[in-house]
Amino acid sequence: MERLSVIDMEANQAKLFFLEGSNYCSIDLPKYFDFGALLKMSECKYFYDLSCKLDKDLIKQVKKCENVNYNYMSNKDGKYTWRQLQIIHPILYIDLVYEITKPDNWKIITERLKQFRNLCNIECYSIPFDSDNDKSSTANIIDNWLENIENRSIQLSLNYKYMAHADIENCYSSIYTHSISWAIHDKLYAKDHRFDPIIGNIIDERIQCMSYGQTNGIPQGSVLMDFIAEIVLGYADMLLSERLKDIYDYKIIRFRDDYRIFSNSKSDLEKILKILSEVLSELNMKFNTKKTFVCDDVISNSIKQDKLNSLFLIVEDKSILNWLLKIRQFSLKNPNSSFVKKMLVNFYEKKLKDLEEEPECLEQLISITTDILIRNPKSYMACSGILSKLLSFCTDKIDYYIESIRNKFKEIPNTDDINMCLQRITLKFNRDKEYSTLLAKKVYGCKEELWNSSWLPFKIDESVLINETEIENIDSIIGTDEINFFFYE
Questions:
Q1: Cβ(378)–Cβ(77) under 8 Å?
Q2: Dihedral (C-alpha) 119, 122, 127, 129: value to the nearest 10 degrees?
Q3: What is the Cα Rg of the chain in Å?
């Protein structure tokens, strides 16, 4: 399978790539949310009503508007830690894509990124790419991680004794928007041309339009913003490389905000970490100290702990109840692990998928699955598939069970993910069942706007976001084709 990096694309190819629905919104959502249709409709509005340009008056107006993007809160630990994702206002998204992929601008950006990519001792593996497969963006990201970070780290253990691991804390929300122009044009040039219409300033201004005029943070939740983050992080790589000219025996591999630094000298590793910390600080970023360490067991620390824990684990059991209990026990020792998701999908495929009779332990299975669901946000869709199958044996009590599950989440804030999953379970039984997440409300025709469009001379028809044909054709039981999962090989 050939992968084409976005920086190797022609400008028009890149425009089409960024305007794909799955790249506009990389949040895992049921397939009846059609972001491709939304973008096509919005692109027509942008083309005909705005003549492919936001004028100064519109830019001034939108900077004064709150909630221009739609905020989607994703729980990270089943408790009180969450990540704010954003679905960018479609007109602002389309405008930014058009600006970036103008041939002259695209040439400036890609040449700069290729310069970052050619640094001698620093390898980056997180530039977005197109792929000729049916996997989701999330699955391709994990695929890329395994192929390039984990495997490359193990390979480097042959040549290096020590490894340091470093991670940027709240990377996207820390990025200083002016640093985007520094990264593209160099800091001195960008400062001397602060008010000129160069592409770095255009990107900076458009992101401020999405954030109430603020200069701290970029929206997280799209491949386009992953790409813009790479511009800043690639610039940090270049600054780091320039300041490490007195150190020769090292290798750094980076995937987004995750660094693996290899050396045969502990003192060199500590010096590199110090200099990297200084570089990041200049760009308004800092290490997550909880995830930063130096070790001499390169192989073990190249592999995620949950994967190591799973290597000698036998989960499968003849008893359907015992099998699920084993998964729960693994999840307690490895909270919110991607391997819990893998185990749940395996359980679904081998024990539940073809089950025709109601299991004797139905209520216990529902209770255990719900407990796993609460503790492991990464498993939301996999648990939803299991629950949809279990609830198919008791459709007369589905409202009772759904309300019981919802009550379990009452004390947990920001559970947009679970609302979307529960709605998918109940959709074929009761489309009008109400959920608090605004995106879920769109399924039953809520008129409240996802995006603040008061600054525009026209309205966005948000109803096109819901694909009625998909809703009509989906099964009440969620199949593995809908569960956005990926198996670690």
A1: no
A2: 90
A3: 24
The three-state secondary structure class of 167 is: strand
Residue 223 CA to residue 474 CA, distance in Å, equals: 27
Element (H, E) at 129: strand 129-131
Alpha helices in 283-415 (DSSP H): 298-302, 305-310, 320-333, 338-347, 362-375, 380-391, 398-408
Determine contact, residues 73/87, Cβ cutoff 8 Å: no
CA dist 160 and 181 (Å) reads: 36
Contact 316, 177 (CB under 8 A): no
User: Using CB atoms within 10 A of its CB, is residue 445 exposed (0-12), middle (13-18) or buried (19+)?
Assistant: exposed
Report whether 73 contacts 210 (CB < 8 A): no
Token pair of 417 as six digits: 């993910």
Query: Residue 130 is encoded by which pair of tokens?
Result: 């197109």
Q: For the segment 396-408, what is each residue's pLDDT rounded down to a tens digit?
A: 898 899 899 888 8
Give the pLDDT confidence of 348-393 residue by residue, as tens digits.
Answer: 999 999 999 999 999 999 999 999 998 888 888 899 999 999 999 9
Which amino acid does the sequence have at 360? E
Where is pLDDT greater, at 481 or 348? 348
pLDDT surpasses 60 at 253:
yes
Handedness of CA 324, 328, 330, 336 (dihedral sign): positive
Convert 24-46 into a string of H (helix), E (strand) and C (coil).
HCCCCCCCCECHHHHHHHHHHHH
DSSP 465: G
Give the residue from 273, 242, 229 showing the smallest Cα distance to 113.
229
Q: Is residue 150 within a helix (H) or strand (E), and if so which, with residue range?
A: none
Residues 6+ apart with CB under 8 A from 193: 185, 201
Q: Is 198 helix (H, G, I), strand (E, B) or coil?
A: coil
Per-residue pLDDT band at 141 (split at 50, 70, 90): low
Question: How many Cβ atoms from other residues are within 10 Å of residue 205's Cβ?
Answer: 18
For every residue of 48-79, DSSP letters joined together read HHSTT---HHHHHHHTT-S--SEEEEEESSSS
CA pair distance 188, 151, nearest whole angstrom: 39
Cβ distance 62 to 92 under 8 Å? Answer: yes
Q: Which of 74-78, 209-213, 263-267, 379-383 has the lowest mean pLDDT?
A: 74-78
Instruction: Give the tokens for residue 164.
Output: 């340091």
Joined together, the tokens standing for residue 407 give 């009550």
Distance of alpha carbon 109 from alpha carbon 112, whole angstroms? 5
Q: How far apart (Å, rounded) are the C-alpha atoms in residues 296 and 306?
A: 19
Give the integer Cα–Cα distance in Å for 184 and 234. Answer: 10
Q: What secondary structure letter does DSSP report for 466?
A: B
Report yes or no: 279 and 243 within 8 Å, Cβ to Cβ: yes
Collapse the DSSP code of 424 into the 3-class scheme (helix H, G, I; strand E, B; otherwise coil) and give the result: helix
CA-to-CA distance for 460 and 50, rounded, in angstroms?
A: 13
